[in-house]
Amino acid sequence: MRILLGSPDQDRAGLLRSLGAEGRLAELSDPYADLPSIAQHTGPFDVAVLSVASCREQALPVLREIRRRGLRLPVLILAGHLEPDEEHEALNAGADDVLARPVQMPILIARLQALVRRTLGHSSSIVTCGNVTLDQAQQSVTVDGRPVRVTRREFDVLETLMLRRGMLLTKDHFMSRLYGAEEGPDQRILDVFVCKLRRKLAAEGAAEIVRTVWGRGYVVEEPSASEIAAARARYAEGRPRARRAHLSISNARMASAG
User: Fold this and answer.
1) Separation of alpha carbons 100 and 227, rounded Å
2) CA 179 to CA 185: how far, in whole Å?
3) pLDDT for 184
C-alpha cells in the first residue's frame, strides 16, 4: 500500500515514521498544498491521508481540489478537532473516512486497508484466489488452510496482485508501490519475488494463480476447478510441483493485442 501523506502540522514527521514502522510505504507531500498535484502526477498512490488541526480550514480545500481534478483516490482525514457538522461536510465533499486525533496506529492501518479494498471491490480483509487465501489483518498466506511462510516483500507483491485480480500490472507499477519515488533495486528483483512466491505456494499444493505476460508484467487469474483439483492431488501424492505454462490463453491475447 502506497500512502500519500499531507499535513501542515509539525508532527507530520512522527506520523510518517509511525507508518513506516508498520511496514507501510508513506510519502510526504511537501508543501502540503501541492498534494492534489502530487497525487495526479507522481502516483499511483493507493490512498491519501490528510492530517490536520482543522478539518474545515485545512483539509476541505485540499480535498475539494483532489475531487475537482477528477481523482478517485481514497482520502482519509485525521483532524485534531472535529465537530459533527465538519465531519458531515467532509464526507459530502468527497472524503472516504474522517477520524479525530489521536488514533491508534493499528486502527488507522486497518481503516486505510479497508478503504483500498473497497475501492478495488473487496469487502473483507480475507482475499481468496483458487485455493490460496491472503489475510491482510493477520499478514498471512495459506493454501487450503496450510500456512505459507513469505517475506514482507513477497506478501506485498502477492497482496498487490490478489487485490487486483485479472488486472495486468507492469513492473513499473510494482516498483512504484514497493519503493515509491525513491530509486529502488533493479526491476529484475520482481522476477525473484514472483519465482519464490510460485515455488512456496506450489509446495503447499496451490494451483497456479500468478501468470507472467512476457515483456508486460504479471497478473493473478482464477484457476479452473480442474486445475485446483490437480494441484491438490499432486500435493496428496507428494509431488506438488507441476510443469508450468508461462503464458495463459488470456495473457497470450493481451500480449498479442499489445
Assistant:
1) 48
2) 9
3) 64
φ and ψ at residue 83, rounded to 5 degrees: -90, 150
Phi and psi (nearest 5°) for 111? -70, -40
List the Cα angle 131/136/137 in 5-degree steps. Answer: 120
**Four-CA torsion 109, 113, 119, 121, nearest 10 degrees:** -160
Non-local (6+) Cβ contacts of 177 within 8 A are 1, 2, 25, 44, 46, 156, 160
164 φ/ψ angles, rounded to the nearest 5 degrees: -120, 45
Please check whether residue 36 is in contact with residue 71, taking contact to mean a CB–CB distance below 8 angstroms: yes
Alpha helices in the chain (DSSP H): 12-21, 35-41, 60-68, 84-93, 105-119, 152-163, 171-179, 188-203, 225-236, 249-257
User: Average of pLDDT values for 220-249?
Assistant: 79
CB of 197 within 8 A of CB of 154? Answer: yes
Q: Which position has the grid cell 502477492?
A: 158
CB of 146 within 8 A of CB of 125?
A: no
**Cell numbers placing 202:** 506450489
Q: What is the pTM of this model?
A: 0.76
Closest among 183, 177, 147 to 161, alpha carbons compared: 177
- Residue 97 confidence (pLDDT) above 70: yes
